[in-house]
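To whoever is covering the structure queue this week,

Two jobs came back overnight. Logging them here so there's a record in the thread.

Job A:
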Amino acid sequence: MQSLSPAMHNAVFARLGIDAHYDALDVAPSEFSETIDRLRHSEYVGLSVTMPHKDAAFLECDEVS
């Protein structure tokens, strides 16, 4: 996984004194739904989704605006 998002977000959180942490999770398509269910019951309060999971993520949404 080569994402720069964790480093960028965590640097901003630290600079602004925000008590948060951005993690990158490498999830196989076959494990996506199970992973979302596990995250729903964890301390995570949000997530960013990248390909190839965007369509599957849409189907997991409680609400779409």
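Job B:
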Amino acid sequence: MLAPAILVLAAVSVIPFVSLIVMSFSHVRLLGGVTLTPAGLENWTTVFGDPATWASWLRTLEFFVLAVGSEMALGFGVALILNALRRSRTIVFSITLLPMFLAPITVGLLGNFLLDPTIGLYSWLLRSVGLLAPNHGLLGQRETSMVAIAALDAWEWTPLIALIILAGLTSINPSVLEAASLDGAGFTRTITSVVLPSIAPILLVALLVRSMDAIRYFDIVQITTGGGPASSTWMISQQLQQKVQATSLDGVTTLIGQASVIGITMIAFSTIIANLFVRLLSKRERDR
């Protein structure tokens, strides 16, 4: 009975992954059909010896900290507000969730429009208060481009974090909060001593979900900055795409082998993060 399901699983996951490993040790030619020739460790040594690849990983880490950090903080705040609402919660909740239903390409195009140095609303507002020089845009400056990209991602996905955390907040027993109040615990003490420990597993799940997306972030960067200016938003996904589309000096052999190496490292990094979160969740369950 399980054989068909196992075959489907192998077709959609195992076989492509094995193919990725094979290509990482091969020179790949596409002219006249796909041809693989052994390359040994050449692709691996080239990728791991490439400063541009390491730089793209560092920028990915920078984006990860900015975007996921702000989403977790803002999502927690939004969830607290929604949880405190007694009237119009459904309406406010529905409006709050709207950004996450937009396609990334739509968010990118909207970001281009709102942050345009000439006609962008946000650019005009920042210039009005003296935070942005004339004819300068947030997406066009090395110092602000990554922050702008992270802000667009936070705008789109903070509602998802808020939704996950709100589910955790509603599961807290009201009697626990009442007991904390009777003991004289203020708002801050209640949050740090009661709420956060109670929803810690939920926070880990939310962090895991966004971490997986942040590592392979591509769409909005490609639409808004294309990895620029001066490679300031060039992340590992852009590096992967460049390798897929490029050829070696002979003009025939592709760099798909090097792209496969990058893809494998991304999978490995994602797996390590996922296992870390699973271990943290398991440890917390054992300690309870």
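Note for Job B: The domain at 47-287 is CATH 1.10.3720.10 (MetI-like fold).

Please reply-all if you pick these up so we don't duplicate work.
Q.
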